[in-house]
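User: My instructor asked us to take a sequence, write out its structure as tokens, and then describe one feature of it. I'm not sure where to start. Here is the sequence I was given:
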Amino acid sequence: MRIAKIVLERLSLVFLGALAALICVQLMMDTSPPEVERLRKLALWLWISTVYVGFWFRTARKNAPARELSPAKSGTGVVVGTGLAAAYFVTRDSSGSAAVLLPAAIGLLTIVTAWFVFRFASKHADEIGEARFVTTNPDDGKSGGV
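Assistant: Let's start with the prediction itself. The structure tokens for your sequence are:
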């Protein structure tokens, strides 16, 4: 786990340096090639991802027993991951105000949806999970298939 933390910290610094270099290239050029813009967006998403995972590693308890992830956390994670992927794929081919407006709207909707999912899953955590069926026959008490 310690090596993973170190690797993530180094990767985060590499992606941050690449992001800074690409921003400098964009500022120095009159017209930036589309490849530089795509690389800048990729470096930004990679940096955000490594920082997020790095914070997750820092908050993990040492020698803590493995626990099952709560439905609230797993559901919220799925919504946030899907929203980030949607925002990334929308920004790949867009330019101008559409490059900011649509991903911002997707981000806002992702935050709102994640909040609703977390709230719902927190209240109904006992009801969410694997489906279990009663397989006993009430007439004879023998176990049978579904």
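For the description part of your assignment, you could build on this observation: The mean pLDDT is 78. Try explaining in your own words what that tells you about the chain.
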